[in-house]
Amino acid sequence: MADTNVFPVPESWKKSAWINKETYHEMYERSIKDPEGFWSEHAKRIDWFEPWKTVKDSDFQGDIRIRWFEGGKLNACYNCLDRHLDKRGDQVAIIWEGDDPSVDKTFTYRQLYEEVCRFANVLKAQGVKKGDRVTIYLPMIPELAIAMLACARIGAIHSVVFGGFSPDSLADRIQDCDARIVITSDEGLRGGRKIPLKANTDEALDKCPEVDRVIVVRHTGGDVNMVAGRDLYWHELMKDAPAECPPETMDAEDPLFILYTSGSTGKPKGVLHTTGGYMVYTSLTHQYVFDYKEGDIYWCTADIGWITGHSYIVYGPLANGARSLMFEGVPNYPDFSRFWQVVDKHQVNIFYTAPTAIRALMRQGDEPVRKTSRKSLKLLGTVGEPINPEAWLWYYNVVGEKRCPIVDTWWQTETGGILITPLPGATDLKPGSATRPFFGVQPAIINQEGQILEGACSGYLVMLDSWPAMMRTVYGDHERFKTTYFVQYPGKYFTGDGARRDEDGYYWITGRVDDVINVSGHRLGTAEVESALVAHEAVAEAAVVGCPHDIKGQGIYAYVTLVSGVEPSEELRKSLAEWVRKQIGPIATPDYIQWAPALPKTRSGKIMRRILRKVAANEVSDLGDTSTLAEPEVVEHLIRNRMVR
Ligand code: WT7
């Protein structure tokens, strides 16, 4: 495919950026040929209490061992706060913009430091110790970042659960990591609507008798039920807590956090990230990918409940002493200009969001954008799913007024930080391509047999060697870590994504090749939605696939076989959708539910998902090989009754 659209690096960026073409190539070469040398140099950006003994010790064979900077001692919170106090104590660290446009708040590094120390002391007073897991179920309010940093300060492992997840999903995540303490708030607020976080927590805790402490942030002031002996208010505990708390000395390989993510099978897995490599890598990528310069105001619109918020709202930016904006609201409240109003209000220079948001805003036309200034913007970023060139061009032309390079950053919860991305002073852009690997990253494209392909090609995206921010294991289940990522193609990290590489060596991510779907940049396992559906008394069997969706990227398409005697109806369709929503959370609500008297299966009883995907995508003229189908008439029925045409 010829690339007609190339956007060369602007002259001014070549001169001013941290990295230009020459330095990119030099540094990349070195990072691959001499990883020890490269990373020991760049690890100095982090403050270490004691130096490491080995830079890198990793093996993608056998038991899978990934260790970086072993023996090195540090504290992640110290790196985000304490070390900035001398120079930047009075500089803004976090700008918080509330859901309500008239509500905002800023924290300087010193103020943030004091709040974090106080809360660290609160946690200690509640008996939380190094290595304990702390579940955090909070909306996008400053207390979320404060709670995370306080955990890091005392060496507790945080597990943030996105506020959009249901009580059941929360309960699963609390149980899996055996957390004894949960931090939540009365309610969340998004687009003027209240989300009953404390009530959800109460419901979840019915299933988690081990949890003996809940700390509740009073945010909206809504009514909540406080359980005597278990529930305490944040503000009351903070009143008398001292504003000094020495940081715990952590080994580079001590866990920093667990974050649950969906896979192709079973329940979400606890992705475990450790301290040293993660801090080095997230701070380095934050500086170079976003070309962060002292004083810049940087805004990542993600929710901290996802990895994007962990790495690029909290740890990376704060380690760099940046000004990081945290937004509680949504792009269309009070109206579709909100993002750009916030940009103008806080003079944002660097803006990082998801393709789904860009597409939703693009649909509203240019007017809501054009009526704002956006003069402060200099760089735009995207993450979460492939961006279609049309949305890329709109983002570039309308939002950035052809002035701002776009960094399309490819990465995953597992990777901890950005792996494939343009660097704005070094990489000519092609709309829709995440372009090239970051330093130290060795991607390859393989075919189904696992052979590495050369030159321009397409296939499965794998990584040939480890990078510092890579996940270390699945919490409590190292076997699952091995089988999910390293068994199918031994010796390589399997990303689960398909990709193409063009003649210029640019990578184009084509999307998941496993049973994971990406709905508005949120990752879901089709198996999770299926097990929610079959848990309903009316459902005998269910199969779920992704289908193309204009705004969300992928929608959720469910085929449902009812138990005999139950009649399909619109009402039942609605209540099944509501059921899934209650079981997992709003992001998992099916877009389509098709009644299927039977599912297409092979003679050995395996559901033929490939066919279900085609029917859901309305690509019914070419179903591929159907010779192994047990009952071809089942497929004909599904085609006749398909929901998208
Ligand atoms: C999956 C990971 C890491 C941030 C948020 C998502 C898809 C992510 C891109 C991109 C094409 C992308 C992949 C990946 N993805 N960024 N720039 N271009 N696809 O994290 O929930 O772990 O999902 O998101 O399919 O595997 P996640």
Automatic annotation (TrEMBL):
The residues covered by the AMP-binding enzyme C-terminal domain are 528-606
Give EC number(s), comma-separated.
6.2.1.1
Q: Which UniProt keywords are listed?
A: Acetylation, ATP-binding, Ligase, Magnesium, Metal-binding, Nucleotide-binding
- Binding positions for Mg(2+)? 534, 536, 539
Any one Pfam family here would be: AMP-binding_C
Q: Which Gene3D superfamilies match?
A: 3.30.300.30, N-terminal domain of ligase-like (3.40.50.12780)
Q: Where is the AMP-dependent synthetase/ligase domain?
A: 82-463
Function noted in UniProt: Catalyzes the conversion of acetate into acetyl-CoA (AcCoA), an essential intermediate at the junction of anabolic and catabolic pathways. AcsA undergoes a two-step reaction. In the first half reaction, AcsA combines acetate with ATP to form acetyl-adenylate (AcAMP) intermediate. In the second half reaction, it can then transfer the acetyl group from AcAMP to the sulfhydryl group of CoA, forming the product AcCoA.
Q: What protein is this chain from?
A: Acetyl-coenzyme A synthetase
Organism expressing this protein natively: Desulfoglaeba alkanexedens ALDC
- State the taxonomy lineage: Bacteria, Pseudomonadati, Thermodesulfobacteriota, Syntrophobacteria, Syntrophobacterales
